[in-house]
Amino acid sequence: MRKSLFSLLAVAAATAMTAGTAQAANYGIDPTHTFVTFEISHFGATTNRARFDKKQGTVEFDRAAKTGKVDISIDTTSVNSGTPAFDKHLQSADLFDAAKHPSIKFVSDKFSFNGDKVSEVSGQLTLLGKTAPVTLKATQFNCYDSPMLKREVCGGDFETTIDRTQWGMNYGVEWGFPKNVRLVVQIEAVKQ
Length: 192
Known about the structure:
The protein is mostly beta strands and 192 residues long. The chain is built from 2 helices and 11 strands, in the order αββββββαβββββ. It has one domain (24-191): Beta Barrel (Lipocalin). The chain has helices at residues 2-21, 84-91, and strands spanning 25-29, 35-42, 46-52, 55-62, 67-75, 79-80, 103-114, 117-127, 130-145, 152-163, 180-191. The chain has an 8-stranded antiparallel beta barrel. The chain is elongated and about 50 Å long. The relative contact order is 0.18.
């Protein structure tokens, strides 16, 4: 009896240990629920907004260990302001230089938590061939079992403000266009 009780406790302990590490998983970005938008003041009168329609990437997430990795690529030719002439200017060498730099990349391996929720993701943003650190703060975050996909989905709304001149995007600064650009990232990723 004593031997079987110890065996049972050993199996239970091993199961508990592997259950904690079993939460580590890979996720694929869901492009239908993932949007990257930016906002910049237009002479203090209005706000110019646009989004990128094409993006792809992966997320590694371990809730138990409170760790994660993100690798997202954004197609600069997919910038969409709702105005084709403005989109063409955004893609030009003045701004995103899409012909020379067809993608923007964000890579992160530092997740910060508030309890069980991701509170921010820190990483490196590559834009116009230059890389600099960026921290995205979560305004909300959750994981849920999707009734349609029959898989776990994790995601949240993240935002930050960057100084675009740090990446060499200087267009219009001498006319009074601000350096600061607000980035808003809505992301959902599906467990693979």
